[in-house]
Specification:
Length: 190
């Protein structure tokens, strides 16, 4: 396992120190610390950690709101550490995209595995999101090509195969993607 870099966002200095020591014993490097959610978001944007350990109840911005922002910006996974286990907070954390939720008191035996699992899940989710984006892009390209093919078929009285070959030939001749050619056809002739 690669060594992790984390940010600790906890408003209690003693708890922050305990967390830092537990992480250090497991060769997990703390690259930043703060005592409120807003600072955690700013630090994460700047330092790009592998994981953010964050308390829920903090001044300025609570941990759930900070997690929501960090998740939306796809900066790093968030693990919430809290003394609260109410169903509503757990649900809010889930909706904010939190990847782990540990109830205090935290010990090294639960913390360290949870850190690695959260980072691993985040990496898996990131890969899936990239695959979805790639598939959506391919689908959009296919739709554009189909539309352009239809325009060429109608305009030049071509069959489907001939219209496709025309787009492909233009693509090679102009050194542009078929999607770019299709978009140009749609604009010029659509």
């Amino acid at each position: 396992m690669k060594p992790l870099k984390v940010i600790i966002a906890e408003d209690e200095p003693v708890t922050r120190k305990d967390l830092r020591e537990m992480l250090a014993e497991a060769k997990i490097k703390t690259i930043g610390e703060c005592g409120d959610g807003k600072s955690a978001v700013e630090l994460a944007r700047k330092l790009k950690p592998d994981l953010i350990l964050m308390d829920i109840k903090m001044p300025v911005m609570d941990g759930i709101e900070a997690a929501r922002l960090l998740n939306a910006e796809k900066i790093a996974p968030v693990m919430l550490l809290t003394a609260y286990s109410q169903k509503q907070l757990v649900e809010e954390a889930r909706e904010a995209g939190v990847l782990a939720y540990l109830v205090k008191p935290i010990n090294k035996q639960n913390l360290i595995p949870a850190c690695y699992i959260a980072v691993s899940r985040y990496e898996e989710f990131s890969l899936l999101a990239q695959e979805v984006d790639t598939l959506n892009e391919a689908l959009q390209s296919r739709k554009q090509i189909e539309k352009a093919k239809g325009i060429l078929q109608k305009h030049y009285n071509l069959d489907e195969e001939a219209a496709f070959k025309k787009i492909r030939t233009m693509s090679m001749d102009q050194r542009k993607t078929m999607k770019e050619i299709a978009e140009a056809i749609i604009i010029a002739m659509g």
